[in-house]
TrEMBL record:
<keyword id="KW-0479">Metal-binding</keyword>
<comment type="similarity">
    <text>Belongs to the metallo-dependent hydrolases superfamily. Phosphotriesterase family.</text>
</comment>
<feature type="modified residue" description="N6-carboxylysine">
    <location>
        <position position="132"/>
    </location>
</feature>
<keyword id="KW-0378">Hydrolase</keyword>
<dbReference type="Pfam" id="PF02126">
    <property type="entry name" value="PTE"/>
</dbReference>
<protein>
    <submittedName>
        <fullName>Phosphotriesterase</fullName>
    </submittedName>
</protein>
<dbReference type="InterPro" id="IPR001559">
    <property type="entry name" value="Phosphotriesterase"/>
</dbReference>
Length: 301
């Protein structure tokens, strides 16, 4: 059976993903970012075309349920720009949602995630291709436990990968203890985001040894102080034998973020100089094809 990635236009062989921005946002809306919404389809199309102009082929949008992911326009954006787009289901930290909304959906999260992965998001036929959840700063709080438990159930029912926002790059061991230990998700089906925001090499190697994928998703307007460390962090991890688990993303969260074109235009040459073309190709092409592919669901085995 050929491994497949679920895009907004349908499933494609994982090998067709091509050069991939493994963590980004075409659309995003949150009460913690007032006035900085990403909600302009024309601007999103411009970013996709610029990314494609530098050889980009695929973008994975980590915007989850209730944060303005614009499933209604994702398919047309993918068609018109010739770029594969992967959409997300899941839930971010509680601070990004009205309490009343969380109260309405909390008891049916796993079913919601499964429906968006298998049937479509809202009234659209666009199916999500991954489940996005989030930890808290240096801990897994009650909300994260709720969402990660639902994400694990949805993973077991569908085979979808799980992507995790690590708050300032922290709590990765606690996240893996819950998802992979208590909840039985294989580590290679987990993608840990924002590890570069806590540039602790020992901690990065600790979680790499589990087999999880590690997403280094900058440069970021808010966290640029850690971006200059990226080449040495990646070189250390690749040198320690973890090159097959590394992913790169632009993580466009507000309009001023350098984002996806910068990832290929500026960051790729810098990383190629330090790491070599083969390692960078692995991070942009080979590794995403494995990280975002669906596997046979455990409940079907």
């Amino acid at each position: 059976m050929v491994a497949a990635v679920r895009t907004v236009l349908g499933d494609i062989p994982a090998g067709e993903l091509g050069v991939c921005d493994a963590h980004d946002h075409l659309f995003l809306r949150s009460p913690v970012l007032p006035g900085q919404e990403l909600d302009d389809p024309a601007a999103a199309a411009g970013r996709l075309r610029a990314f494609a102009g530098f050889g980009g082929r695929s973008v994975v949008q980590w915007t989850p349920y209730g944060m303005g992911r614009r499933a209604d326009v994702l398919a047309e954006l993918s068609r018109s720009t010739g770029t594969h787009v992967v959409a997300a289901t899941g839930l971010h930290q509680a601070v990004h949602y009205p309490a009343a909304l969380l109260g309405r959906i909390r008891d049916g999260l796993a079913s919601l995630f499964v429906s968006e992965l298998t049937d479509g998001i809202g009234a659209t036929s666009v199916r999500a291709g991954l489940i996005k959840v989030a930890g808290a700063f240096h801990t897994v709080d009650a909300h994260a436990r709720l969402t990660m438990t639902a994400a694990a159930e949805a993973h077991h029912r569908t085979g979808a990968p799980i992507a995790v926002h690590l708050e300032l790059g922290t709590a990765a061991p606690d996240v893996l203890d819950l998802l992979c230990g208590a909840l039985g998700v294989p580590p290679h089906r987990v993608i840990l985001g924002h590890l570069g925001r806590s540039p602790d090499g020992a901690a990065q190697r600790e979680v790499a040894r589990t087999g999880a994928f590690l997403a280094f998703d900058g440069p970021s307007r808010a966290h640029h102080a850690t971006d200059w460390r990226l080449p040495e962090e990646l070189a250390a991890l690749a040198g320690a034998g973890f090159g097959g688990q590394l992913l790169l993303g632009g993580d466009t969260t507000v309009p001023e973020t350098p984002g996806m074109p910068h990832l290929l235009q500026r960051l790729r040459p810098r990383l190629t100089e330090v790491l070599g073309a083969g390692t960078v190709t692995d991070m942009l092409v080979t590794n995403p094809a494995r990280a975002f592919a669906f596997e046979a669901p455990a409940q079907a085995a």
